[in-house]
Amino acid sequence: MAPQQKTSRPIPILMYHQVDVEPPKGSPMRGLVVSPKAFSRHMWALHALGYRGLSMTDLEPYLRGEKQGRVFGITFDDGYSNNLHCALPVLKRYGFTSTCYVVADLLGQYNRWDDGRGVPHAALMTAQELQQWVDAGQEVGSHTLSHAFLTDLDADQQWAEISQSRQQLESCIRQPQGVQHFCYPYGALNQVSVDCVQKAAYATATTTVRGRVTGWGNGLLLPRVLVSRTTTWMQLLIKCLTRYEDRRGIDRLAGQAL
Predict the structure, then answer these.
(1) What is the DSSP letter of 61?
(2) What is the β-pairing status of strands 139-142 and 18-19?
(3) Crossing angle (nearest 10°) for helices 127-135 and 165-172
(4) 231, 239 in Cβ contact below 8 A?
(5) Cα angle vertex 157, ends 104, 115, to 5°?
(6) Rounded to an integer, what distance in angstroms lies between the CA atom of residue 93 and that of residue 91?
C-alpha cells in the first residue's frame, strides 16, 4: 500500500443505511434505521458549523489533500427507496451531495440478503428511482451484485461480484462520471477483495471500520463514522469533530486479514 498523505484535518465519512420510520421494537437490525427527523437534525447541525456534505466523487480531492475545507462524506449502504423519499429532500435543502451504494442485481426488489434473520423487508430503488437520485445531484456507487459476503467467495466469484456490478449499474444509470466508488458489504474483505476493487478501477472503497480519514493510502480501505438510530445530533458532532470514533475502530485496519 502506498505511503499515506496526511489530510489537512480528519475527514468523517458518514455511514447511513435506511432513513425511515423506525421498525417495531425487537426487530433485528433496527439500529440501522435513522428517522427522517434525526437525519434532518444531523445535517442541520453540521451545516450550522459551516460543514458541507459531499459525495465520494466530490470528497475525493479533499481526501487526497488536494483541497482543504470543512467537509464530510455522506454515504448510504444498500440503495433503499427511503433514501430517495426521506433523505433526498434534506440533502437538497442544504445543497449536500452523497453516494448511495447499490446492490446491482436487486434493483426494485428488497433486502433479500436479510431473509431468514427476521429483518423487516424494505424496498430498494428501481433503476428509474436511481436515475432520479442521480438527476437530483446525488451519486450511485457499487455494493456488489448480490450483497455478497466477499470473504466466503473465491477469487473468480469476488471478481464477478465487484466488476460486473459496476458494469450493470453503468448500463442502466446515466451518471456522467460512471460508477467510480465501491463499498464492501458487511465490511467483509481480504486481499483478494482489495485487489479486485483495484483491478476494476474504482477510485475509492469504503469499509465498516469506524474512524475518520486521516490520510490517503490507496483509498480502497477508507473508514467511516457509524450513524445509528439512537445517534443524536450532539453525538454526531462528537463523532465527527473529536477522536471518539477513531479510538473505536481505526486500528482494526492494521489487523485486517490482508
Answers:
(1) H
(2) unpaired
(3) 70
(4) yes
(5) 55
(6) 5
Fold of 5-251: TIM Barrel (3.20.20)
Give the other-Cβ count within 10 Å of 26's Cβ.
Answer: 7
For residues 145-166, one letter each, b for 16 or more C-beta atoms within 10 angstroms of the residue's C-beta and e for the rest, the string is bbbbebeebeeeebbbbbbbbb
Q: Indicate the pairing of strand 5-11 with strand 213-216.
A: antiparallel
Is residue 216 predicted with pLDDT exceeding 80? no
248 pLDDT higher than 70: yes
From CA 70, how far away is CA 240, in angstroms rounded? 11
Q: Which amino acid is at 170?
A: E
- The string of pLDDT tens digits covering residues 109-129 is 999 999 999 999 999 999 999
What are residue 216's DSSP bridge partners? 5
The structure's pTM equals: 0.94
CB-based contacts of 49-54 (< 8 A; 24+ apart in sequence): 49/237, 51/240, 52/95, 52/96, 53/14, 53/91, 53/94, 53/96, 53/97, 53/98, 54/96, 54/97, 54/98
Per-residue pLDDT at 14 exceeds 80: yes
User: Looking up cell 464492501, which residue turns up?
Assistant: 184
Taking phi over 0 as left and psi of -120 to 50 as alpha, with beta for the rest, 214 belongs to alpha
Cell of 115: 431473509
CA nearest to 14, candidates 61, 48, 59, 80: 59
Interaxial angle between packed helices 233-241 and 36-48, expressed in degrees from 0 to 180 and rounded to the nearest 10: 50
Rg (CA), the chain: 17
Whether 16 contacts 229, CB under 8 Å: no
SS3 172: helix
The grid coordinates of residue 190 equal: 481480504
